[in-house]
């Protein structure tokens, strides 16, 4: 379906009238067509600036996982590198060098056996990185099938129904059957037994999520790997794992060093993460890493030379800014291991403290406590009375807070929750202010005679917690 412009009938045909106090000619500017002539730069800036004042405050957005705060020095570096094209490694060799340093740093952080042989690249975000990981799984599977003289026309990918929407897009775009494991009871993510039950000779891989967008929980990567080891021993079917560590791959190494989820597990072929989430960079950078050269099929690597030299590339995007990659290197250099540990620990402390306080308010029940990635979900108790999670979300929005309310997917569509994402920049002080506002809106909501809003009136973007339909395994 074609995208439609979100204009309302009230002003769809009206031009923009400029305040004469700060404007020069002209005083009227078309909204949906190019102006006939030029504008003074100050006027153009003021027009755009004023309209953007109607956006929400990014720091109060508790729905997004994306970084909303950065140090001035990081922002200055990004401004200095805004014109650099990341793909043009011949023209900007030092920016390319910083990219490779980041890849090697991540390889060591994720316990690659030989970090020098680890293959990786920056991307525009973890969604692109995830699709690269999925493409590599599909190509490796296809090559094995064709080498054995077997059909390679029915690939499938096994994952929990809680995966981020990018995996549904991957399956759609690259013609892979998605096999979603539904939620059951108190299990809100992929389990080892459930994953193996959907695997067969056409399974290109299993996606394990380190930090579910629905409730913040880690999936049991080591247990899934052990179950797949057993499957191979019993049947000969060899299924690799891709770890979607969009959030958790930048949390677990610092806060959960004993948790085995990364390249320490031989079955983990690739990992993606988001530099602009808990990598602490402003939006625009993700990372994809493979265990070694064998895990990334060579036919996914392209060589270009029209920019001045032979440059291998295997990202989906071509031209893109180098500013965020430079900011990532700055963050690694600036914070080091202990700095990241302190930042992430503070986020977790805020999340667990806030989850505990919300659980003690009375009408809420927490499903998770923020003890994995600093994200937690909570619901309204059945005996709470006259309001829903959608009422709570709408009331908090009036105070400036963006807190998404949504239902869980199959088979727990009965469960409607609110979710809070704690990021760097949302500290104990803002958490206290959030609690104060939550207490205030509760006084009003408790006086309602009945629920005022339901799922059909939810306006918030759930940031990854979109519904998907499960499919049974083909046998």
């Amino acid at each position: 379906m074609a995208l439609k412009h979100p204009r309302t009938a009230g002003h769809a045909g009206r031009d923009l009238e400029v305040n004469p106090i700060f404007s020069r000619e002209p005083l009227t500017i078309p909204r949906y067509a190019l102006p006939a002539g030029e504008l003074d730069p100050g006027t153009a800036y003021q027009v755009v600036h004023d309209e953007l004042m109607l956006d929400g405050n990014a720091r109060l957005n508790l729905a997004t996982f994306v970084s909303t705060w950065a140090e001035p020095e990081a922002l200055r570096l990004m401004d200095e590198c805004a014109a650099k094209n990341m793909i043009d490694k011949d023209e900007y060799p030092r920016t390319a060098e910083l990219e490779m340093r980041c890849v090697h740093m991540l390889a060591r952080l994720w316990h690659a056996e030989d970090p020098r042989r680890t293959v990786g690249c920056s991307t525009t975000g973890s969604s692109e990185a995830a699709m690269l990981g999925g493409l590599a799984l599909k190509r490796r599977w296809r090559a094995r099938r064709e080498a054995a003289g077997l059909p390679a026309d029915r690939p499938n990918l096994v994952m929990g129904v809680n995966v981020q929407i990018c995996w549904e897009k991957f399956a759609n775009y690259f013609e892979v059957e998605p096999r979603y494991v539904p939620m059951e009871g108190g299990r809100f993510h992929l389990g080892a037994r459930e994953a193996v039950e959907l695997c067969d000779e056409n399974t290109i891989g299993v996606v394990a999520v380190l930090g579910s967008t629905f409730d913040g929980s880690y999936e049991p990567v080591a247990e899934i790997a052990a179950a797949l080891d057993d499957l191979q021993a019993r049947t000969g079917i060899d299924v690799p794992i891709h770890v979607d560590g969009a959030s958790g791959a930048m949390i677990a190494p610092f806060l959960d060093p004993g948790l085995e989820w990364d390249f320490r597990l031989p079955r983990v072929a690739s990992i993606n993460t988001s530099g602009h989430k808990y990598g602490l960079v402003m939006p625009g950078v993700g990372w994809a890493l493979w265990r070694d050269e064998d895990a990334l099929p060579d036919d996914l690597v392209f060589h270009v030379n029209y920019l001045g030299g032979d440059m291998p590339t295997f990202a989906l995007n071509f031209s893109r800014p180098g500013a965020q990659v430079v900011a990532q290197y700055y963050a690694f250099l600036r914070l080091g291991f202990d700095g990241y540990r302190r930042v992430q620990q503070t986020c977790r402390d805020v999340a667990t403290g806030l989850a505990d306080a919300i659980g003690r308010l009375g009408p809420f029940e927490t499903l998770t406590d923020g003890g994995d990635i600093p994200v937690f979900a909570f619901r309204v108790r059945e005996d709470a009375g006259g309001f829903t999670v959608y009422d709570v979300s709408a009331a908090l929005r009036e105070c400036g807070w963006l807190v998404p309310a949504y239902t869980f997917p199959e088979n727990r569509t009965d469960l409607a929750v609110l979710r809070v994402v704690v990021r760097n920049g949302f500290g104990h002080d803002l958490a206290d202010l959030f609690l104060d506002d939550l207490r205030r809106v509760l006084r009003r909501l408790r006086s309602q005679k009945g629920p005022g809003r339901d799922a059909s009136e939810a306006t918030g973007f759930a940031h990854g917690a979109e519904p998907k339909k499960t499919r049974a395994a083909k046998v």
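The first strand starts at residue 16 and ends at 17. The first helix runs from residue 41 to 52.
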